[in-house]
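Before a colleague's protein record goes any further, I have to sign it off. Thanks in advance; the entry in question is below:
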Amino acid sequence: MHTQVEQQTAPENNPAQITLLKIREWGACSDGRDWFREKFPQGGTYGEVMNGLYADKRYGDARWLADKAFDVKNINADFIKSDVRSIIAVTEGVDVDENDGAQIGSSGDDARIGSSGYGERIGSSGYGARIGSSGDDAQIGSSSYGARIGSSGDGAQIGSSGYGAQIGSSGDGAQIGSSGDGAQIGSSGDGAQIGSSGDDARIGSSGDGAQIGSSGYGAQIGSSGYGAQIGSSGDGAQIGSSGDDARIGSSGYGARIGSSGDDAQIGSSSYGARIGSSGDGAQIGSSGYGAQIGSSGYGAQIGSSGDGAQIGSSGDGAQIGSSGDDARIGSSGYGARIGSSGDDARIGSSGDGAQIGSSGDGARIVCSGENATVAFAGRRGSVSLGKGGAASLVWHDGARNRFINIYEGEDGIEAGVLYAIENGKVVRQ
C-alpha cells in the first residue's frame, strides 16, 4: 500500500510554504494539525492553505494562521504575495459569451452567467451563482450567498451582499464592494477600489494604487502592489503589504499589521496592535494601549502615545518617540534617536552613537553601544553606559531640580554598570 510522506520542512526556494512542522512550532491545536495533515500531507503554500480553510469555513483557524504569518517575527513578502495570488485564482474558470450592452438578471439557484460584451449589467439573487465578465465597464450585483464573480475587463463595478462571496478582478480601475460575511476578494489590476463591511473578509490585491477598506471583524487584507492605501476599522484585522509606499491605517482592537515594502506609513489608534515593518523609511504611529511595534529597516520613524508600548528597532538611523507610561523601547541600529516622556520607561540601545532623552520619572536606560548620549529630565532615573558614553541625570535637593553629569571612564564610571543619583551622589544600582 502506498503511503504519503508528510512534508516536514519548507522547500528553500519557497518561503511561503506551510508545513506540519511549521504549524506545530507555531502552536497549532491538535484538531487543526489533523485537518492540515489530511488536506496537505505534502504541505502547501500559505495561499493554498488559506483557500482550504475558507472552503471548509474554518474562519477561526484562518485568523490564527494569518496571525502567525503576519507576526512581527515572521512577516514575509512571500506570504502576502501567495495569499493575493490564491484569492484571485479562486474565481478563475467561468465561461463567458459575447454581447455588448447586455442586461442579464437571474433569481434562481446555481445560475451560471457569462458575458464578454462592453457595458453589460448583470444581477443575480439566487444561491450559488457563477458570474463571469470579460468586457469593460461591467456592472455586476449579487445578493445571495455563495456567489462566485469574476471580471477581467477594465472599470468593473461589482457589488455583493451575500455570505461567502468569491470575487476576482484582473482589470484596471475595478470598484468592488461586499457587505456579506466570509467574502474572498482578489484584484490584480491597477487602481482598484475595494470595500468590505462583512466579518471574516479576505481581500488581496497585487495591482498598483489599490484602495482597500474594511469595517468588519477579523478581516485579512494583503497587498503586494505599489502605493496601496489600506484602512480597517473592525477588530482583529490582519493586514499585510509588500509593496513600496503603502499607507495603512487601523482603528480596531487587536490589529496585526505587517509591511515589507519601503517608505510605508502605518497608523493604529486602538489598543493591542502589533505592527511590524522590514522596509526602509517606515513611518509608524500608534495611539492605543499595549502596542507592539517592530522595525528592521533603515531610517524608521516610530511614534507611540499609548501606555504599555513595546517598541523594537534593528535598523540604522531610527527615530523613536513614546509619550505613554511603562514603555519598553529597544534599538540595535546605529545612530538611533529615542525620546520618551512617560513614566517608568525602559529603554535599551546597543547601537553606536545613540541619542536618548527621557522626561518621565523612573526611567531606566541601558546603552551598550559606544558614544551614546543620554539626557534625563525626569527624576529617579538610572543609566548604564557603553564605551565613551555620557549622561545627564536629575535629582531634587529639596528646593529644586539639579543635574549631575557622568562620563564613562571618568570618576570611576564604568561601562555596563547601572548608576543613579541618591542624595546628590552617583551610586551603583
User: Anything to note?
Assistant: Residues 17-90 form one domain. DSSP finds five helices and 38 strands in the chain. The first strand starts at residue 17 and ends at 18. Residues 136 and 153 are 4 Å apart (CA to CA).
